[in-house]
């Protein structure tokens, strides 16, 4: 066969003839496309009619499902033959079942991916061949199986299996690259894999570590900030402890430290003109907290810890994007209405922590009530509850005492 036919099921369902996408006719029948997908994914195995009917009409009632299936198959064969002469013959009828039979030379990305998974399991495989196979896998795995399909519930199990095997192969490849000290390639592989799974902790940490190893510390810091925002904004959770520990590693790396010192110098110069609290990452806040705890006993100073939590009035789960916008607004209110010596950090998706030096209960509560007033002035009809607690840090205990009387 002189023409090259390729079928893609990863991410998008597409058909290519000689590198040109020609699946517009298939798109005329979504149910027919689902039929094709089921048959192709079973890789030559016969699929019983009952299974096909259950997958294609699981939420619909049909007076004659067997006839509906025959009609669908006939229509799809006709549409496929319009795409490419003889393509409709790939849907082969058997007794009480149908199967997909590839034309000679036809390529299916899922088949090649499965073959790669099988090949790289061979311990006797030489490293160069293994590397080429995984590089090919990275090109083929452009997204999870049938990610954009509207009727892909039946494919979830296979999609999950392929996803997990893909990550396992990537992890193994990253170990090999690090052993060779090829951190530039680690960066490329991580970024490509993150296009498939943007919430994988290990990939983000491997990427940040490789950026540090290649002295691209500014990029590592930007990646950390991006991941933090990603977790807050889309998942409504704080990044893992291991992820947060990376902040300290980035800051402690040589050039980043120099840049941070320069940034701090610039910030100190500007601070004479600027007003407001110091807003920082959680790991910085934690270090400041521990420093203040050590200073309390030595200097005899006073420091209060405040926490502010927002939640829906009715107790329902807040939509992550709305929650993130409100929390960002709250932090800006704190920046503008607290003093320079106060420290603020987002402790969790719905909680902000504050360190307030040189206040007592009375002044501390006044500060929190003032913030509360500003908050509701900015969000008058938001149906959000603003709750706070405030209490003194104690040098004799492992955590601050927050008396029940200081809840609001």
Describe the overall structure:
- The chain contains 14 helices and twelve strands.
- With about 400 residues, the protein is an alpha+beta fold.
- The protein has three domains: about 100 residues, Arc Repressor Mutant, subunit A; about 140 residues, Serine Threonine Protein Phosphatase 5, Tetratricopeptide repeat; about 130 residues, 2-Layer Sandwich (Alpha-Beta Plaits).
- The termini are far apart.
Tell me briefly what this model is.
The protein has 408 residues and is of the alpha+beta class. 53% of the residues lie in helices and 14% in strands. It contains 14 helices and 12 strands.
Task: Summarize the SSE layout with pairings.
Elements: E1 5-8, E2 14-17, E3 20-21, H1 30-41, E4 47-48, H2 49-56, H3 65-83, E5 91-94, E6 97-100, E7 107-108, H4 109-120, H5 127-140, H6 156-179, H7 183-194, H8 201-213, H9 217-235, H10 241-252, H11 254-271, E8 278-279, H12 282-299, E9 303-312, H13 320-337, E10 343-348, E11 351-357, H14 361-378, E12 384-392
Parallel strand pairs: 1-7, 8-10
Antiparallel strand pairs: 1-2, 2-3, 4-6, 5-6, 9-11, 9-12, 10-11
Helix pairs in contact: 1-3, 4-5, 5-6, 6-7, 7-8, 8-9, 8-10, 9-10, 9-13, 13-14
> Roughly what is the average pLDDT, rounded to an integer?
83
DSSP strand count: 12
Query: Please, how many helices?
Result: 14
Which sequence of strands runs across the widest sheet?
Answer: 8-10-11-9-12
Keyphrases for this structure?
Arc Repressor Mutant, subunit A, 4-stranded mixed sheet, alpha+beta, Serine Threonine Protein Phosphatase 5, Tetratricopeptide repeat, 408 residues, Alpha-Beta Plaits, 14 helices, 5-stranded mixed sheet, disordered C terminus, elongated
